[in-house]
Amino acid sequence: MKQAHLAGRTNGLRPSLHRQLERLSQRRHPGLSGADPLTLERLSELVLEFKQPLHLIVDERGLCRLLWVGPLSESDQLRSHLPGGPRRIKRRWRLISSLQGKAGTDLKPDGRDAVVALDLKPDTWLRFQASPSTGGGHLASLWQPDPGDRSGWHQAALGTLKELCDRPAPATAKDLDSPGPTTAPADVQERVLLLILTGADAQRSERDLAELEGLVRSAGALPVAFCRQRQGQPNPQTLWGTGKLQEAALEARRHQATLVITDRELSPVQARNLELLIDCPVMDRSELILDIFAQRAASAAGRLQVELAQLRYRLPRLKGRGLSLSRQGGGIGTRGPGETQLEKDRRAISRRIEHLGRSLLQLGAHRARLRDRRDGVPRVALVGYTNAGKSSLLNALCCRNPGLEVLAENKLFATLDPTTRRLSLPQTSAAPKEVLITDTVGFIRELPKPLLEAFRATLEETREADLLLLVVDLADPDWQSQLEAVQQLLDGLSCDQLRKVVANQIDRCEASAIEAIRTLEPDVIYLSAREGTGLKGLRNWLEKQFWDDATTPEPFTQQTALPDHG
Ligand SMILES: Nc1nc2c(ncn2[C@@H]2O[C@H](COP(=O)(O)OP(=O)(O)OP(=O)(O)O)[C@@H](O)[C@H]2O)c(=O)[nH]1
Ligand SMILES: [Mg+2]
């Protein structure tokens, strides 16, 4: 018979004990179901002698593939100890654990043991107490993987060891692999677990979580679960506590998550540690945003900018990244420049970064020449938080032909490349009055730095505009902090031209929001891009800004002094 593999706390075992364990691991169990009671009796005697739990992994033919000594939690990758490696693992395998505990609750799979056991994907897990109960038998319970249960397992039977040894495996095994109603095929949509650190402000944390969920959906993935921890004394190695990460590992398996996304930027070491502890690819919010940009980039300039940002972000992180950079199956973080290329040659990447930087400079110069050609026509940029309604406003103002509309949809970062349109203003004089309006890429809190740097060429449209219309989604409960974030980002980009706040989406906002913004920005323009309300007021205001005197056709641009914000 094929000899089973012994692993775990085997160092320092007396040779006689070693032999006994080996003999036990060579005993055959009934095929497909059940277990050999005599082997398990002997196993429990050794548990009491060793003062260590012992675990058998039995295949569908009843052969023991591994005897693990000590807690399962001591192995990050129990599967890798199996002869033939993790790929050999099949369904219909059984896990049998002889435990040291005495109380009935000790039979419940718990903590890291439960997580590691789920990794094995066994059909059943028979757990029994090594110490006989007062009646003489061993208390035992049979567990099956259950994605719906918090522990990842549900109890299929409880009884004495003898009873459960004879019991065939329940036919309705809820295997974690079986497609349930909530399960999407993994290759169709990435399933994401969100790992979050919350602050003292509960409302703020809720909104941050909602925003992160929106980003995940924007990337085309499905947020399936989240784990949050109150921010305390951060552990520099992992940011989250070990207990929380154990919970995250369990949640990831319960929900069949294929990716974990954190709301905090991770150092390469932290990312690697998290991957090891959760045993799932881990990515931070910045990388997620970069991925959304990579998906949206349509123009040549947009693609160059995204590639540059991704390379700048990844270069310092190449070393030490494990699972997430070696994913071959597609999904978040694998779009844009190829990962194998990234791994191949750091110097080539640095050269590519230089090359991209030069190309973008050339593009910037080209754009500047184009802008010069528009000289004399006032330029207005629509800026604001992502999803505020900038593109909708551009369409409402300038687009009479439905075929020429820019994309406006309920997605974060729907717009990536700036679009400029001509807007004819109310003509009170004979001379035509036109301004150029540019729809720009949206902003977000804590925009990844490499992205901001790479998008300088696009953001120049904003810097070079004569006037900024700062679009706010007044229906978003978080509008105030979004407005602040945009103001700060504009300050950081040295955009010092006039900023006029435009309160959009008034058709669906709370009356209190209108009151609140009135106190904050008394001269705000209210409108609804969707309903078309307030557009006339905005046009009139623009006309007044650029043509002080309605009879003077000379436009009022940044080259001449602008009045103070008012
Ligand atoms: N009810 C209502 N919905 C609006 C209004 N303006 C925009 N929306 C909706 O808000 C969502 C986002 O609109 P967009 O115009 O794409 O927003 P954006 O600021 O361009 O977003 P990004 O390009 O992703 O930064 C879309 O679903 C719009 O239909 C409005 O005035 N009222
Ligand atoms: Mg847009």
How would you characterize this protein structure?
The protein has 566 residues and is α/β, with parallel strands linked by helices. It has 3 domains: 5-166, 3-Layer(aba) Sandwich (Cytidine Deaminase, domain 2), CATH 3.40.140; 187-373, GTPase HflX, N-terminal domain (Rossmann fold); 375-546, Rossmann fold. Helix content is 36%, strand content 18%. The protein has 17 helices and 17 strands. A 7-stranded mixed beta sheet has the order 1-3-2-4-5-6-7. Strands 13-14-12-15-16-17 form a 6-stranded mixed beta sheet, with helices on both faces. β4, α3 and β5 form a beta-alpha-beta unit. α9 (300-314) packs antiparallel against α11. The longest helix has 28 residues, at 346-373. The protein is elongated, with a radius of gyration of 31 Å. It starts with a strand and ends in a 20-residue tail after the last helix. Mean pLDDT is 82; it is low at 172-186, 320-326 and 550-566. The structure holds guanosine-5'-triphosphate and magnesium ion.
